[in-house]
Design brief:
Structural class: mainly alpha
Helix content: 40-55%
Number of strands: 0
Shape: globular
Mean pLDDT: 78
Largest sheet: none
Strand content: under 5%
Distance between the termini: 30 Å
Number of domains: 1
Length: 74
Amino acid sequence: MKITLDIDDELLSVLRDEATRSGCTLSELVEAGVRHLLSASQPKAKDLSPLPTYHGGDFFIDVANREALDSLED
C-alpha cells in the first residue's frame, strides 16, 4: 500500500543516507523502523508477516545523483 508522509527535511536526509548505506530503499527502511517500534510496544506486531525481499537487478543511474535524475526528464 502506498501512503504519503510528512517528514522533517533533516530526518529525511538522515534516512536517505542510512538507506543508501544499508543498501535498501527508503520505504524498506521506514517499514523496518515502524515494525521495530511496534514490536516493542505491541505484542500483535510480532505476528506480522515478514518483509518481502526482491532483487530488482542493478541500478541504471545513481538515484543520489540529481543531474542524472534531471536528465531523465529530457
